[in-house]
Phosphonate metabolism transcriptional regulator PhnF
Amino acid sequence: MRKTIERRSGVALWRQIADGMRLAINNGDYDDTGMMPSEATLAETFGVNRHTVRSALASLADEGMVRSVQGVGTLIERRDRLTFPISRRTRFSQGLGGQAKELEGRLVHQTIEPASPIVAKALNLATGIGCVRLETVGIADGKPISAATSYFPADRFSMIGDVYARTGSITRALAELGIDDYVRCSTEISASHAEGIDLRLLKLSPGAILLVTTSVNADTDGRPIQYSRSRFAADRVRFFVET
Amino acid sequence: MRKTIERRSGVALWRQIADGMRLAINNGDYDDTGMMPSEATLAETFGVNRHTVRSALASLADEGMVRSVQGVGTLIERRDRLTFPISRRTRFSQGLGGQAKELEGRLVHQTIEPASPIVAKALNLATGIGCVRLETVGIADGKPISAATSYFPADRFSMIGDVYARTGSITRALAELGIDDYVRCSTEISASHAEGIDLRLLKLSPGAILLVTTSVNADTDGRPIQYSRSRFAADRVRFFVET
DNA sequence: GCATATTTGTCCGTATGTATT
DNA sequence: TAATACATACGGACAAATATG
């Protein structure tokens, strides 16, 4: 199978090749052997010089995806894409049963600020009403999966940052604050290149892709309680919508 | 607002900047004036030379996003990210009401082939049963939005390729073949870099992002009739899930 | 019409990164 | 490892088109 590599496109050949190989690995293309083809074979496949393939493999090795062993070949170290169900009952920490051994939510930052027009509309508040903003990172088996910015009405949830920091879960934090149950109203999904702080929070390399969800959760009375924008490392997750 | 541009990352600065500006345009950041800031301002914002900004703008002009006029500035020509609802009633040609003037489905290729294990499982058939495979492209206002590979059981839908080629719509093609109504059972969503034929079909440049959906449609009796893998140009669409 | 500031377009040269042989 | 070719990025200077008062 001959891959398409474009020159003079503003993307270095080695990066295009690295992206292609990462895709193939996550796709399970090399699952039978657990190894990459030889550098010579890859160079032939992509139609480039072996040096260029080596640059691509070095980049993948850098992010822990593969490991090259002299005299043996290039071993695949990691291949995993978690499946997140999206439904009325969507929670970060549930629905992943068995897919990850350890789940953790970490509070990066919290502030109280007046609601912007967008946040106000989503939470059904007047613009300028105080909101708690949480910056959080979701971690599965020690690997950062998502970075999220969440807004809660400050009148009802002024303490949620502290509780979340202690419990590591929005669901548990809301439970302590009297919300036994809540539902996902809507989810908007898009994709973009990772930028700025997300590169660092999610330990991504430039050019990496984010799956971005914008969602609203409401209590059982239908009152909005949380507006979030979550950025998922696209090569680690997929979403599943049952309709 | 200072954007993060990474050097020595394997992605040319002008491309990172072009991607950032495309994102901002689609995000509506410049809607008040309908123009980009001056090249000098952009160069300052991104912390690069004006020539580099010009390369990025040239690339955006190339894809019809902006148009530069000497002495005036750089005008925004197009700003569009279609919102696709995902629900039990998901169809390409519906739910886009008003978002695009002209919608079209084009048949690229069709074959009849035995069902692979994955296709067979999705369509609830035995492996090896004949299936019609359609390669299609969805076009809105003359711009390719999605490329899709669809499988239908050949016994019931052997003619669907021809009907689709004539009608330009899966829904209408199924209607002619006796399926008045059908529902979306499940949708899986992921994202990856565009590769190979998708670059050409969707007229994308390397490094572009795809939103990939894998879905199953069934008739009203619950029998699966269509299994599809659709690749959407991520900078032209978003998905919306109501739950 | 005129002068001036602003903005894009084009040219020069130089240094560095990328890819091949 | 070295030599080569090309793409990328920067800096500066000036021309051409447009907007403003």
Summary: DSSP finds eight helices and ten strands in chain A. The longest helix of chain A spans residues 13-26.
